[in-house]
Amino acid sequence: FPKLSDAAARKAVAGTRKRPLSGDRRRACAGAPKLSAPAPPAFMPMGSIQKRYLQGGRPALRPGLVQQTDQIVASHDLSLFVVRRTAELAETNERLRQSEAELRKLAHHDPLTGLANRSLLYDELRRSIARGKRGGETFAVLMIDLDGFKPVNDTYGHAVGDRLLEAIAPRLQECVRVSDVVARLGGDEFVVVVEGVLDQHQALAIGAKIIAVLSQPLHIGAHDIQVGASIGVALWPQDGDDTQHLLQSADRAMYLAKQAGRGCCLPASTADEA
Q: In the 8-state DSSP scheme, what is residue 274?
């Protein structure tokens, strides 16, 4: 075939005349089924919805798609509510546990020093007696009264006296084991319960240690303050077989120690001899 240039090809095409379809071809085309656009799927990504069903700036969703979308949103909102509510309940339970712990502490501890109060002391003494009856071990009760505390209150005021008591509490705790009980009865009176004491001599040695520690000066505010201690010691079961008698025996011995010149530790047997 001869090779035509581009200009000649365009001229040849332009010179051709469009011929109408013959009758048979027109009838065949008329009977063919008409093609229509495919129906949109039941659920489409948001990007396709926006592109294909955008009307007036808002996506036009079919009823089925709207229902499915509402269900998804409702399920998502419910999940968020459950997570948020679970976190709130956990936080509320934690606050309740902390409040209960604080109430228990207030009910069983001295608010000023944080030591055991009279109620907790009696409970601990009853438990010590029960353990002693089971195992046969002796324990000691030391009744402690500060020497020279009243002049501190009279001279420097009750605020300084309270700070002095707060400083005395950890010193007492340092003199015994963590398992031993240190309690404040009120005012400047304290009680220490020491388990596993072999005899009176060991209990008196613990008392002498407490006196030496409490006699060291304390710096309270702008003041250097020094107090002492008088201690009475009672042993279970020889000086009392119950809580009341043990405390009474230790208390009598403590007052004898004050009368003897203060700054000393005496056993309950001294009160019996007197």
A: -
Instruction: State phi, psi for 259 to the nearest 5 degrees.
Output: -70, -25
| pLDDT classification of 101: cutoffs 50, 70, 90 | low
In DSSP notation, 231-260 reads EEEEEETTT-SSHHHHHHHHHHHHHHHHHT
> Which of 196, 37, 48, 185 has the alpha carbon at shortest distance from 121?
185
Q: Where is 147: in which H helix or E strand?
A: strand 139-147
As a whole number of angstroms, the distance between CA 262 and CA 10 comes to 133
Number of continuous H segments (helices) and E segments (strands) in the chain: 10, 9
Residue-wise pLDDT tens digits, 234-252: 999 999 999 999 999 999 9
Integer Cα distance of 211 and 190 in angstroms: 12
Q: For residue 249, what are its two tokens?
A: 């025996």
- Identify which of 182, 129, 142 has the alpha carbon closest to the alpha carbon of residue 267: 142
| Tokens (6 digits) for 197 | 């004491």
